[in-house]
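Subject: sequence -> structure tokens, single chain

Hey, anyone have a minute? Need the predicted structure for the following. Not urgent.
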Amino acid sequence: MRGRVDHKEAGKVCVIVQEVEVFDPTDAEIEKAKAQVAKLAATRPSAFRRRVDAAQLPASVVDDLRELFERYPGDSEFVLEMHTRSGLRRLRFGDNYKVKARDAGFKAELEELLGSATLAAA
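Reply:
Had a minute. Here:
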């Protein structure tokens, strides 16, 4: 698809389509793409997620989590999914705070820290 971005109406952005081509990859292209996705999935650990009710978290939770992550360094990204009044918010701690997600001690301390705010392991 080729087109242009239109900003004529205030607060509204549209794409004006000028040309369309049918997407028809070859079998070889599809297999190559599948192989690339499989390779990426095998080399990158999935994120470790926890879903919580933000209203039940203590104000110190971010600092407490950082201290916990420093005690259990690993290769999994941690994502805290928080239900707030305005909807679901995801807090990613980034590369400096990757954790050893399969460690039983880490999981036990995390559950103790998040306590009753935990909704589900995402």
